Amino acid sequence: MDPYTARAWLRLDPTAPLTVDRIESAAAQAAWASHPSRAIDEASRREAERATAAIAVARATLLHELAAAPRRHLSGGAIAGIVIGSVATLALLVVAVFAGVAAVRPLVDTAASGGSAGPGEHGVDRYSALETLFTFPAALEVYTDGRLDDLCSEKFEKGCWETAVFPLDKCRIMSVTIGYTNDEDGVEPEFYETQRFQDAESGEEFDVVFGNDLYDYGWVNDVNCHDSAA
Fold first, then answer.
1. How far is CA 28 from CA 12, 22, 105, 116, 167, in A?
2. pTM over 0.70
3. pLDDT tens track for 7-34
4. Are 6 and 57 in contact (CB under 8 A)?
């Protein structure tokens, strides 16, 4: 979807400057107005479902356009933040950065703290390929329940971020780029590292656990495919 069509779906002025708050507010209003639960018959319900899907695409398109603007930093209020874990003293903040998702490292033992409730499962938040916008389409899950603790090296005193990537297609060599920064408002990582996986199958789960005690923020920045087997 192009940005002009996306603005139309969200009923945004084509000349108005984009901000995260403006996009999210418009998307929420449009989604509520077109929610399938408000339909009066089956035909209107199907139409509402199509509109809801288009609104989700429009939201993702404009957030991506905003993140990709030619500037190195966004103000704190302009970062696309989603609180995805908050139980007792545990808080995990996910921040959309370009094609990735950034997160503040949990400061307590996640295994003892649970996490936010994803759809039908406690301690997991899911992001579709439409939301992640990785170069090689893939969904992402972020875990806050410590399920992958055994994959976190003891050398990381501050713990690890625990995620899983689910590619939408086959890939001979799939690379997952991790980004780190100490800048809460940073758009670009200060440091990168890459994990590689061979012979990825569509929908297969690939655990991506990473840590770096030198940085407070880390995220799956992008996913790429090399020598596609599709």
1. 12, 10, 28, 21, 28
2. no
3. 889 988 877 778 888 898 888 888 888 8
4. yes
| Each residue's pLDDT tens digit, 159-191 | 999 999 999 999 999 999 999 988 876 668 899
Q: Which two tokens stand for residue 215?
A: 């940085």
CB 180 within 8 A of CB 217: yes
Domain ranges of the chain: 3-67, 76-226
Contact of 48 with 35, CB cutoff 8 Å: yes
C-alpha separations of 42 from 36, 49, 101, 120 in Å:
9, 10, 37, 26
- Of the CA atoms within 13 Å of residue 112, those in its CB half-sphere come to 5
Band of the pLDDT at 225, cuts 50, 70, 90? very high
Largest CA distance in the chain: 58
Angle CA(158)–CA(216)–CA(195) in degrees, nearest 5?
Answer: 80
**Residue 124, CB-side half-sphere exposure with 13 Å CA sphere:** 14
* Burial of 37 (C-beta count, 10 Å sphere; 0-12/13-18/19+): exposed
Judge contact between 35 and 52, C-beta under 8 A.
yes
Alpha-carbon distance of 81 to 78, in angstroms, equals: 9
What does the block give as tokens for 95? Answer: 């921040």
Structure tokens at 226: 């090399």
For helices 42-67 and 20-33, give the axis angle rounded to 10 degrees.
170
How far is 211 from 106, CA to CA, in rounded Å?
11
